[in-house]
Design goal:
Blueprint lengths: L21 E4 L5 E4 L1 H7 L13 E3 L4 H9 L14 H10 L1
Parallel strand pairs: 1-3
Antiparallel strand pairs: 1-2
Helix pairs in contact: 2-3
């Protein structure tokens, strides 16, 4: 792969058909694709994220927490959180 080629990452939401316009990376290196409009609509903190389309936006959250935030950033049925540990849920609550 050429250094100038952009790798498109997938949205973590199964069967999501929205166009990906932001590539995000968790603190532990996992990348996901997402949608700036959804992030802005569902999360007050994300409205301050400004990026160039070709950039990877890095977040301080780990992959588990970032994926949970992304799952709550879609107009779909909420994910089952019953199997998550209290540490993840507490961290999620503190960042929403």
């Amino acid at each position: 792969m050429w250094a100038s080629e952009k790798v498109i990452t997938r949205c973590p939401i199964q069967d999501c058909s929205l166009s990906i316009d932001i590539d995000i990376q968790s603190s532990d290196g996992k990348r996901s694709g997402s949608h700036t409009k959804n992030l802005d609509l569902f999360n007050a903190a994300f409205s301050s994220v400004r990026h160039k389309t070709e950039d990877v936006v890095e977040f301080s959250e780990d992959a588990a927490l970032l994926e949970l935030l992304l799952k709550f950033s879609h107009n779909t049925e909420f994910p089952d959180i019953s199997g998550l540990g209290m540490d993840v849920l507490s961290d999620f609550e503190s960042r929403r």
